[in-house]
Amino acid sequence: DSGVTQTPKHLITATGQRVTLRCSPRSGDLSVYWYQQSLDQGLQFLIQYYNGEERAKGNILERFSAQQFPDLHSELNLSSLELGDSALYFCASSVTAGSLETQYFGPGTRLLVL
Amino acid sequence: GQNIDQPTEMTATEGAIVQINCTYQTSGFNGLFWYQQHAGEAPTFLSYNVLDGLEEKGRFSSFLSRSKGYSYLLLKELQMKDSASYLCAVRGIHLNQAGTALIFGKGTTLSVSS
Q1: Which of A28, A63, B30, B78 would suit a FRET pair with B68, their CA atoms being 20 to 30 Å apart?
Q2: pLDDT, tens digit, 9 for 90 and up, residues B35-88
Q3: Which of A99, A100, A101, A111 to mutate to test the interface with B (most CBs of B within 10 A)?
Q4: Does B100 sit within 8 Å of A90, measured CB to CB?
Q5: For B31, which of A45, A55, A100 is closest by C-beta distance?
Q6: Closest Cα in chain B, distance from residue A92 (Å)
Q7: DSSP letter at B39?
Q8: Cα separation of B29 and B89, whole Å?
Q9: What is the DSSP string of A65-99?
């Protein structure tokens, strides 16, 4: 158990819908990262927050957005869902945003878009 | 561009030694990480290298050559539970950003048989 929690574990929804994925980092961690893992693409970095502020953006679609709240939990919002958005979504956290920091991953949310 | 290459699959027998190679071309370099991921589960941290050379951690060792853009993960005394995907990840430098997200290879699926 990494100490990172994610809810829900599974999510089934329809195309065009909007969902929110939630992540609580390890106690004391200030940085949160979101990754998407699909069978053909592997783990892809989406976005990073540090202490409430956006730090870096990766391959995140405009239909997706995220935020980190004052209590440091983070939410990833996915809207106008398409079949291709079906994937495992992982949240990871680290103590700071330093380059030598190890990222610890949560158990993931499996999203299925029908 | 940024590219990380690993073999797709490898097989080995219990008790053997296996070496999983990783080559990378990224914008900048701030460390190389290895993660283990069992099917449907979260990636778990194994090791990281930031300087050239070998880092040993029990049955696992990781080697880095920055000049060659090359790393390997060495697994000794293989056990059935080592059957998993092994992900090589590089922490690059995101241009114009202060982010420290990881760029992942697609992973090497290792199957250990008795």
Answers
A1: B78
A2: 999 998 999 999 999 999 999 989 999 999 999 999 999 999 999 999 999 999
A3: A99
A4: no
A5: A100
A6: 10
A7: T
A8: 11
A9: EEEE-TTS-EEEEE-S--GGG-EEEEEEEESSS-T
pLDDT at A57: 87
CB within 8 Å: B97 and A105: no
Q: How far is it, in rounded angstroms, from Cα A56 to Cα B58?
A: 34
Q: Which of residues 8-47 of A touch B (CB under 8 A)?
A: 31, 33, 35, 41-45
Residue B45: strand, helix, or coil = strand
B20 touching A (Cβ < 8 Å): no
Around A68, how many Cα atoms within 13 Å sit in the side-chain half-sphere? 22
Q: Model confidence at B2, in pLDDT bands (50, 70, 90)?
A: confident
> Position of tokens 């590219």?
B3
Q: Which amino acid is at A33?
A: Y
For residue B96, pLDDT over 60 is answered with no
